[in-house]
User: What shape does this take?
Amino acid sequence: MPHLNDKQHLPACTTRRKILAAGIAGLAGTTLIKQHDALAANSESVSPPSIISTPARVWGPQAPVPFTPDPDIISYDPSFNKVISWNAPLEQAWRGNVSWLEGPAWSVEGRFLLVSDVTGSSQYRYAEDTHAMSVFRKESYHSNGNTFDNEGRLLTCEHGLRRVIRWEHNGTCTVLADKYQGKRLNSPNDIVVDKDGGIWFTDPDYGDRLWEGHPNEPGINAPTPDNLTWNLGTELSTELGGAYGQQAHVFYIDPETRELTAVLTENQLAGPNGLCFSPDYKTLYIASSADKAAHPGGGGFRNIYAFDVTGNKLTNQRIFASMTLNGEKLMPDGIKADVVGNIWVGASGSLGLCGVIIYNPAGKMIGRLRMPRTISNLTFGGPERNRLFMTARDSIFTLDVATQGAGLS
Assistant: This one.
């Protein structure tokens, strides 16, 4: 996902209240009241979002006996109650000295959660039974998305080396994709596998920066940045960064030939990020983290899009969810489906709104998990695949649910 700084997570409601109060007092009153009315007209609720639970919640090992039902599990539809356990609380299962956790993937054989620290350029293994985190790979070349294929092999997206790799059972590494039409990839982001073993991944440009990858070499469509030297500091930086990248794509890798096919261009879907299949693999959902479309007729605007899947072709592009809550356009990131077809979305936004948004198969928001920080990605795991793991900067949050994850990871 795009790496966000803390300023983008500051509470919005306090500022909004102060501005509104000032408007009522006569300081630019007319303009501010009109702005507030416009916000209310486009909101699902006219009330400002609450920031904390009442009483204020404590997270982590010092947390008291959890509330039941959990006040930060918010239901908008009776169907949500069927997939939530009323006495299972949200928990901060782990927090530590990492920079930006992403790409959670559950190993069925190993019974552990694999995560990437994108900016820290490492991968970690989290053991849910002991809550212990250990180093899985000390240098991961700014890995992001991970998943396991139909044979239990680990697939990883690497920003630094601008490639998608597969770790074989004998410990060797196979490069599945690193170039398209002679140009290096940008920064492969998220990855999924279909029922036939086909590999789908998104390739936006979020990793072409110093803290989670490598800047582009100046070239066509890649103006020279005026605030850095693109190849300074890292050994083999010209190899790691490669030449300048290209427009964002969604790609498909054939499981037999390893042929790389572009199934969507940036003009069709700007800022492709998280992606997941429906339980029957007939629909592919893709999150757009771009705040606008790259082409007048294309998709973007921080929506989630749905596509019909036929082989390696995508058709019938449509908006599945607009990611709007309380008048604020949230930014979707990692997404996963459960076995009944609900889509669980990690979301960035103002404190009080960020967290996880859950949509039913028809695209209706049925509930949300109000979290203390942005959720970058999520997956279902545990022996029964009924534990939701959520990554959030330096933390892993969990929730036991009354459904199970669809697919592999």
